[in-house]
Structures are given as structure tokens and as C-alpha cells.
Amino acid sequence: MPASETEIQELMRRWRAVMVAARPHWGSIDLTLTQLHAVSTIARRQPLRVSDLARDLDVGLGAASALADRMARRGLVSRRADERDRRIVLLDVTTRGRRLLERLEQGRAEHVGRLIERMTPAERDALATVLRAFVRLTAEHTLRKDASGIVAVERQDRARSGPSATSEAARPRARLRGEAARPSTC
């Protein structure tokens, strides 16, 4: 019998709780989740403008600037003026910040690896099937967040061209309130 949507939601809730509780190196760092998310975002997109960090974190420019200052004082990021426009502040992750992210990723990978080792071959096959489906579905969709915080999930339809493909691609498939799906730093 196929799993109900309620069962899947409950399993996802329990999975997140287990992963949060089992983060091996999370307790050894003294960062808030917002600070960790900021360092991770900067590392992926550096150099990153403070204004882009504010947009990505869904906070005001002043809050993002203060956050960047705190992380710079801790040696996790560096701030510098853009050479083309001195009014723009660019952020980069420092070696210390990179090492922190690597340590967290290594701890997460080891934890997940230990869980996978305990699975039966059939469970590992099922996990691989589910992950392939998520990769396929994610590649077919784009998340777009508007100014009000509404996240629209749009289907990418590259096979067709012309006005009908554009209008279908622009039509939201689902609308969510709040945060977009972001890479996990479990």
C-alpha cells in the first residue's frame, strides 16, 4: 500500500529531528543557524555583496551588514570594497570559515555514512531510487521567491519552445510561504 502524504510528512519531520539531534560537530561550534547559513551562502557564491546576503537570508541590509561584521570579527569572513564601486561591500569566506564548513560537512558525511552502512542492501537500493527521483525532479524545477516572501515552484520545460512553453514555465506549480529549500548543512 502506498504511503499517505500525512505519513510522508511525519517521516520527514522525524528525519529532520533525528538529523538535527545527531549533528556530530554542531555542538562544538558557537554559531547560530543564521550565522552558519550566512557563511555557507557566502562560501558558495563568493565574493558576495552584503545586499545579496540580505536578500538570500531574507533580512534587511542593516541586519546583514551587522551579521557580516560579527562574522568578520570572529575571522569567518572578510569584508572588502568592490574595486569598481567602493560603495559595494563584498564578502569572502576566510580559511578559518572554510575549515569550519569542511569540518561540519565531514561530520555530516560520516554520520550519514554510518547510517547507510547499517541499511540492508534493499534499503540502500530504495534510498538510491528516491535520491535519483529527487535529483531528477529538482533539475526540472526552479524556486523563485518574490518580495512578499512567497516561493513559487516553476517547472523548467526545455523540450518545448515558443509562447506556450514560456507561459507554462511562468505559471507557478506550487506556492509556499516562507523559506525556499536551501542546501542542508546537517
**Which series of helices and strands comes N to C?**
HHEHHEEHHEEHE
What's the total count of β strands?
A: 6
- Specify the CATH homologous superfamily of one domain: Winged helix-like DNA-binding domain superfamily/Winged helix DNA-binding domain
How much helix, percentage-wise, in residues? Answer: 40-55%
Overall SS class = alpha+beta
The amount of beta strand, in percent, is 5-15%
Query: Can you name the CATH architecture of one domain?
Result: Orthogonal Bundle
Fold-level CATH name of one domain: Arc Repressor Mutant, subunit A
What does this entry look like structurally?
- The protein is α+β, with helices and mostly antiparallel strands and 186 residues long.
- It has a domain at 1-101: Arc Repressor Mutant, subunit A.
- The chain has helices at residues 5-21, 33-45, 50-57, 61-73, 95-117, 121-139, 163-170, and strands spanning 48-49, 77-81, 89-93, 141-145, 150-155, 174-177.
- The strands form 2 sheets. The protein has a 3-stranded antiparallel sheet.
- α3 crosses α4.
- The radius of gyration is 20 Å and the shape is globular.
- Residues 159-186 have low confidence and may be disordered.
